[in-house]
Amino acid sequence: MRDADMPLFNWNPPVKVLLFPLINRVGKVRKTASMLSRKHGEEASLYWKQVTSANRKHLVRIGMDEESICEQLRMFHDAVQSEMVKQHYSSTNNPKGAA
Fold first, then answer.
1. Dihedral angle at the C-alpha atoms of 13, 59, 28, 50, nearest 10 degrees?
2. What are the backbone angles phi and psi of residue 88, rounded to the nearest 5°?
3. What does the alpha-carbon distance between residue 78 and residue 35 come to, in Å, rounded to a whole number?
4. What is the residue range of 50's domain?
5. Which of 30, 21, 42 is nearest to 82 (CA)?
6. Is 56 within the bounds of a domain?
7. Helices 66-92 and 26-38, interaxial angle, to 10°?
8. Maximum CA extent, the chain
9. What are the pLDDT digits (tens) for 46-63?
10. How many separate domains does the chain show?
């Protein structure tokens, strides 16, 4: 039997496509950023843990591997932080000027 005849050598793992990555869920990113901006200390920490836990459970449920889950959660964290900065500056920016 030749190596090429063995099905193991022809096997390709199935490709998993994530249709809606966390970073592209703009509404979820904006809502999370808005909620975090209004919370402080332990309350903010608890809220963030709840959001992260819910996102992790969702990604596990759809069959994503641990490395990909961590990458998705990191990117979501970065997107939320960026959105918090945008929301802060858009709320404090006075287009008429302060003078």
1. -160
2. -65, -50
3. 16
4. 18-90
5. 30
6. yes
7. 60
8. 85
9. 999 999 999 999 999 988
10. 1
Give yes or no for a contact between 79 and 23, defined as CB atoms under 8 angstroms apart: yes
Q: Which residue has the tokens 């979820």?
A: 28
The answer to the question of residue 8 being in a domain is no
pTM, 2 dp: 0.75
- Provide the token pair at 83: 């959105």
Question: pLDDT (tens digit, 9 = 90+) per residue, 67-87?
Answer: 999 999 999 999 999 999 999
Residue 12 lies inside a defined structural domain of this protein: no
Neighbours of 38 (CB within 10 A): 9
- The rounded distance, in Å, linking the Cα atoms of 8 and 68 is 25
Residue 5 counted as domain residue: no
* DSSP characters over 26-73: HHHHHHHHHHHHH--HHHHHHHHHHHHHHHHHHHHHTT--HHHHHHHH
Q: Which two tokens stand for residue 74?
A: 């990191």
